[in-house]
Amino acid sequence: MIYSLQNERFRLSASDMGAELTSFQEVRTAQPYEYIWQDRNVWNGQSPLLFPIVGRLRDDTYVLNGRSYTLRKHGFAKRMRFALETQTEDSFTLLLTDDDATREAFPFAFELRATYTLLADGFRMEFRVTNRSDETMYFSIGAHPGFQCEMGDRLILDEPETADAFRLDANALRAEKTIPVFRESREIEILPDTFAHDALIFSGLRSRGATLARKNTRGVHVDFGGAPCLGVWAKPGAKYVCIEPWYGIDDRFDAAHDFPYKEQILSLAPSSTFAFPVTTRCVDTY
To answer: Cα–Cα distance between 51 and 76 in angstroms, integer?
Structure first.
């Protein structure tokens, strides 16, 4: 099921499968312009919701309270069907709750909400996690929107940074070495070899957002919602780029399996809610 919102300028759509954003179009023009990646033959995704882990666990395994659990890369939310909880003129909320299958991989009672709000100049995705267990819940959550782009477009951080990027090894785990990317600079040019070795992953950036500056002027600014990690990725040479704010990160190749001590893991007290807003605004660039 696809749910949609429309105002005078934009139309936004998301699927109940994974609560995934499927389209964001400017409809005020003679020919609607699509911002979100559409060719699933190249990448079978558009904007997956990453929960309850981000990236991959070493051996796809973690240990909690002496028991071992298995979770696939990026967790299970993107493969599950959400229910429509509420819908208004400018927003709707999709809801996922735990069941027998989720508790086999993630032993917590939870509610995961994805609220999409259409704005005058863009849209907001807000993900909210509520702990319905009677113990502290450990989890990660991340956004993964893929935006249309061309080779030569640029990703520009809000502030100059000096930062290295983590690389992923052949097992999709963080390798020991990092590579220099920003040296009191802000820009990454999207070229055919930019992602030849998979994603560029950053932790601890000062920037609170980034702009995809497009030569066709159809740029977007993505506010990270306070997330401490950022992934930037596409299949090499493909005409899209994913701007991915994360509360979480892939395991290192030598990571321990102890879930409460996983790097960048979040902890949430019983009956508490964690909110993660990601706001995208259209901007003229070049």
So the answer is: 6
Indicate the average pLDDT of the chain: 96
Q: Which SS3 state, helix, strand or coil, does residue 104 take? A: helix
β-partners of residue 23 are 13
The confidence band for 238, taking pLDDT boundaries of 50, 70 and 90, is very high
CA distance 276 to 54: 14
What's the token pair of residue 277?
Answer: 């807003």
- What tens digit of pLDDT does each residue of 19-35 get? 999 999 999 878 899 99
* pLDDT, tens only, 186-199: 999 999 999 988 99
Q: Is the dihedral of CA 229, 236, 77, 96 positive or negative?
A: positive
Q: Which amino acid is at 286?
A: Y
The pLDDT tens digits for 214-223 are: 999 999 999 9
Residues 64 and 51: their CA atoms lie apart, in Å, by: 17
pLDDT-above-90 percentage for the chain: 95
Can you tell me the distance from the alpha carbon of 57 to that of 201, in angstroms, rounded to the nearest whole number? 15
245: Cβ contacts below 8 Å, ≥ 6 apart: 142, 143, 222, 224, 225, 227, 229, 230, 276, 278
The DSSP secondary-structure symbol of 50 reads B
Which helix (H) or strand (E) segment holds residue 223: the answer is: strand 218-223
CB atoms within 10 A of CB 44: 8
Q: How far apart are CA 47 and CA 36, in angstroms?
A: 8
Tokens representing 86 are 């509420």
d(CA 184, CA 207): 12
Q: Could you tell me the pTM of the whole model?
A: 0.96
Question: Would you say 166 and 175 are in contact if contact means Cβ atoms under 8 Å apart?
Answer: yes
Taking the C-alpha atoms of residue 219 and residue 147, their distance in angstroms, rounded to an integer, is 10
